[in-house]
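[READ THE FOLD]
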Amino acid sequence: MLGKNTTYRIVAGVLPFLCCCTGSGSAQEPQRISGGVKEATVEITETVDTTRKVQLQSPIFRDTLPLSKVAWISAVAPGFSQLYNRQYWKIPVLYGTVGAFTYLTINANKKYKDYKTQYDAIRYSENAGRTEIDPVQTKMIRYNTQRTLFLMGAALSYLYFIGDGVLNYPNGATTVKKATTLAMIFPGAGQIYNKSYWKVPIVIGAFATMGYIIDFNSRGYKRMKEAYNRYPDDEFHGTYPQSSLQNMRDQYRRNRDLSIIITCGLYLLSVVEAHVDAYMKDFDVSDDLALRVEPTLIDVSNLRASRNAGYGPTGFGLSLSVNF
């Protein structure tokens, strides 16, 4: 079977009914096809790619694992890719960073829930005023913001170390596979790997916008749901009919679900874009992908037709080279 580095070289002679084909590279025994006074010699030379993948030798891993499997295992067991890549010093950094952000998230979440309980109790009190609600609401919002930021820090640290394992994968994965894997780990990472930096703000902006829309509709849905369940003792004190509260609740829920579906579509689109972009960057568009016609000398001393015609051992011809 021919490899991808196979070279075909076809030589067409000007001698009567002469068509010779010769190959470049190491010589092989030509195949001869005869018919009457027509004779052709075909030679195909195959260049074997001798590049070898680097095998990871360690007392823990004897076999080479594919990049996709390393990434998936690392997602379930953080630090596996660093262990596989023999970058052991990164493992305590990983667990220390993710653990610190996780602890801060849990602590901020506990305080947020305490102030949320106080806020709900004051808000539904008949004699509650803004002087009682505002201080509690301010602290509730503050700890909710802290909880969100710490949670994002933990998630980003976790994803960063999975991506680090992909970047330092030692067994010669292609750029297409690395770009696709990084795009699956975090939107925009594949575009950064492909050095298409102008696409990163578009990808991040699209996901940030959809995240805001999802959060807005989610908060509206929870608010209308609580008001509907508490009617007529809701936060609007029965101003809106219960049917209106139900319609607003259902509308927020539909908008939230639709936004989640659109976000999933954007995620798949960003992965496909990173894959195609990486593939096109590796696609060979050099001058070697062309047909070239050039004059050449042909050794025809071994051809029966030339001997019978009385020609000498050498003739002129045209060389047709097909390189890919």
User: Anything to note?
Assistant: Residues 1-58 have pLDDT under 50 and may be disordered. The longest strand covers residues 291-299. The chain is about 55% helix and 10% strand. The first helix runs from residue 67 to 76.
